[in-house]
Design a protein that fits this description.
Blueprint (H helix, E strand, L loop, with lengths): L8 E5 H14 L4 E5 L1 H5 L3 H8 L6 E3 L2 H9 L6 E3 L8 H8 L1 E5 L2 H9 L8 E6 L7 E2 L3 H6 L3 H5 L1 E4 L12 H16 L2 E3 L3 H6 L7 E4 L22 E13 L4 E2 L5 E2 L4 E6 L16 E4 L2 E5 L8 E4 L11 E5 L5 H7 L4 H6 L7 E4 L6
Bound molecules: pyridoxal-5'-phosphate.
Pyridoxal-5'-phosphate (PLP) binds next to helix 10 and strand 10.
Amino acid sequence: MSYQSRKTQAIINLTALKHNYQQIAALAPKSMTIAVIKANAYGHGMVEVAKAIDSIVPALAVAFIDEALKLRGAGIDSPILILEGPLDEKDLAIANENNFWLMLHNHQQLQWLTQYPHLYSEKLWLKINTGMNRLGFSADDVSQTINTLSEKQQQNLVLCSHFSSAEELENPKTQDQINTLKSIAKQYQCAFSLANSAGIINWPASHGDFNRVGIALYGSFAIPQTKVAVPLMPVMTLQSSVIAIRTVNIGDCVGYGEAWQAQRTSRIATIAIGYADGYFRNAKAGTPVWINGQVAFLAGCVSMDMITVDVTDLTDVKIADPVELWGENLAVEEIANRMGTINYEVLTRVSERVPRIYIEKKPSA
Ligand SMILES: *Cc1c(COP(=O)(O)O)cnc(C)c1O
C-alpha cells in the first residue's frame, strides 16, 4: 500500500469473517446460507470480503446490478443474488450473461421479463410482501404472477420475503410472516427464503432453502438477548491514534461550541478521527474510546477530522498511542447506541478516506 501518515484505519479480520459465516451456516444445516455483501460489504470492502468467502458460500447477495458487476470485474465466480432485482430493462440481459439471480418484486420487472422470453436467469426469485410493505407482490397476486412465467422459470423459482421485526423476540409479527410465506411456498411447491441474520439466529422456523446472512457475518448483532448463544467475532476494528495531549483548567471548554466544560483539572487527548471518517458527529459526550487497554470518554463535539477525549483517569497516555473506536474491545452496537443509531448504519458509513487493512487473525482465547 502507499505511504500512510495518519494512523486511522479499519482493520478487517478475514479469519473472523469466515468464522462467523461458518457459525451462522451451522445454525441452519439444511439451508444454503447466502452471504449478503451489499453496500461495500457493510463498509468492510466488498471485493476483499467476496474473495475471502467466494469458495465457501453457495451465493452472494448485493442490492443492485452495479454492485454485482464490480464483483464479476474482480473475478468473483459465485452466483450473485440481486436483492432489488432489475432497475432497468437492460439489467435482464446483463443478469443472464453474468449468472446473477434476479429477485423480482413488482409488475414492471415482470413485464420486462415476459418481453424477453429467451432470457432466462438460472434461479428466479419472486418477492412476496408478507407485511414489510416495502417490496414484493401481494399474497393475492402470487398465482397470477407465477402464471406469467415460462415453465422453466417456474421450475427454478424461489419465493422469498423479508422480516420487519425479527430482532424483537416477543413480536408476533415475525411468526405471521413465517406462516404466510411458508403456506404460499407449500401451495406452489417452491423453494423459499426468508431468514436474515435475526431470523437465522432466533427463528429456526424461518429457515428456508436459502437464508440470507448480513450483519452477523460481520460479527455484530443488535439483539440484547438471543435464543441461542452464537460466538461471533467482530470483523472490523476501527483504529486511530493520539495526536495531541493537553491539560485544561476547571471551567475551560473543549472544542466547537464550547460543548464540554472541565469540572476538574483535566487531561484531554485529541484523536485523529472525525465525522468525515464516519465517526458520527452526534456521538454523545461519554461515548467510550479504547486507549492503551483503558477506557476514556468523548469530551466535546466531534470535529471533521478529530475527536477529543477525557483521559484524566488514564495512566500513561502519550502521542502516537493507538486508539480503538470500536471492534475487538468496544462493541459497535454500544457505540452506535451512543450515536443515536444502529450498528448497520455505523459500519456502512465508515468513509472512503479510511484505509481498510486486511488481516487474518485467530481469536486470542
Ligand atoms: C440486507 C438484507 C439482508 C441481510 O439482513 P441482515 O439483517 O443484515 O442479516 C437479507 N435480505 C434482504 C432482502 C436484505 O435487503
